């Protein structure tokens, strides 16, 4: 009898958890907690009333940093991809700043914004801006030439061309870029919260380590980060599968 598709990954995860717990039983002196200890740590966070608070704080920073990057980078990237001279002028500058890790901006962020939400949001913004900018530029470059020719043949105005040709053509690639960049934002917020704020899931991990080696809470924070990252990715993938966002895909 074949297992349902959805059950296979669940069974695999259960086997990994069982192996993890067995390894802890065989080496009880290890500081590393097992799945049962991690579950107790998560329950402890819920009882203390800090779990929801830290999750909301992290999502708040990601929403602002990622959202501001998308609002600025995507229109600018589309414009630079459309106007070749603008791209030639800005491309060297983009390539200079793009390889700089968002974490390298931590001292500057703290200098400009102090220790708090603004510093973390700035770091997320810098981590998301350039990937989204290059994705938007690439999306314009990948528009088939036949789309441009069709727009000219039908005499579309610039605004009509943007709404009827440019937008439908770039949306699928932009959604893929947004999905990847959202993962980057979630990575950056955890690192930023370990240094520049006193709340959030990143802060939870550092605080648990410093407050008596609570490795059950450290691993609990890691598990929660992974689960939320999975949910965010599934949400973006659901947008990619929506028919209204797949206009540039030919249907056979």
Would you give an account of this structure?
This protein has 252 residues and is mostly helical. It contains 10 helices and no strands. The chain has helices at residues 7-26, 35-48, 51-82, 84-97, 106-113, 117-141, 145-153, 158-193, 201-210, 215-240. The relative contact order is 0.13.
Query: What is the helical fraction, as a range of percent?
Result: over 70%
> What about the largest sheet?
none
Element pattern in H and E? HHHHHHHHHH
The Cα radius of gyration reads 23 Å
Category by helix and strand content: mainly alpha
Low-confidence spans: pLDDT under 50, at least 5 residues?
Answer: none
Number of β-strand runs: 0
How many distinct helices?
Answer: 10
Principal-axis shape = globular
Distance between the termini: 35 Å
Strand content: under 5%
Average pLDDT reading: 83
Tell me the quaternary state.
single chain
